[in-house]
From TrEMBL:
Superkingdom as given in the UniProt entry: Bacteria
Listed InterPro entries: GP_PDE_dom, PLC-like_Pdiesterase_TIM-brl
Gene3D superfamilies the record matches: Phosphatidylinositol (PI) phosphodiesterase (3.20.20.190)
PROSITE patterns: GP_PDE (PS51704)
Span of domain GP-PDE: 1-235
Protein name: GP-PDE domain-containing protein
Biological process terms in GO annotation: lipid metabolic process
GO molecular function: phosphoric diester hydrolase activity
Amino acid sequence: MAHRGWSGIAPENTLSSIKLALEEPKIHAIEIDIQLTKDGVPIVFHDKILDRTTNGTGALKNKTLAELKALDAGSWFDEQFAGEEIPTLEEVLQLVNGQKPLYIELKQVGDLYLGLELKTIELIRRYGLEDQCSLISFDHKSLQTCMKIAPEISRTLVMMGSPLLLAEQVNEIQATSVSMYAEYIDQLMIDSLVRNGTEIVIWTVDDPAEADRIASYGADVLFTSNRPDQLWTREAAMVQV
């Protein structure tokens, strides 16, 4: 799965990075992050603060869509992407259009973005992509809200560390998958999720050796990667041997 689009070769969470991921047949799915603008538009961006990946400053939530669209979200990565805009969720849905599964992480914390879940779901439904999207969050309450509004759209619970009662937490929100940080994955955790029938997503894996370690546990997993090409290059080399 391409992490924030193919973010190893294009600026993260932009239409350029998403287009590159769509064009590569070896990439199974795409992950993006969304927040709300000051005027309530779902927009694709990871950080709460604009400074790292744009020429803007300050909190995203305090900016209108027009203000955010005026920013350069590409030059920080490479000058060839100068003028790249921050895309809205609607623009991404129009671009992807069911070509590949889309994992949408709601950057919700408590009630930071009131209405984020509903606005996101309304857009997914507008484009008829309910069976092509999965809603992701660290926030259990946010996923519970999604479950109540749109039980037909799959949910992915993001976890950090080695949580107790993992299967119980997954079942509470009827998540179809769980996304875990690679460093904390071990055989016991994999076995628990496999027994529960839960899809396993591992983030963020760019190191082929780390991918080998997790693959050795004997379960089908979906790797989220900034550089998926580094993983399949290793896979091809192993096949040749």
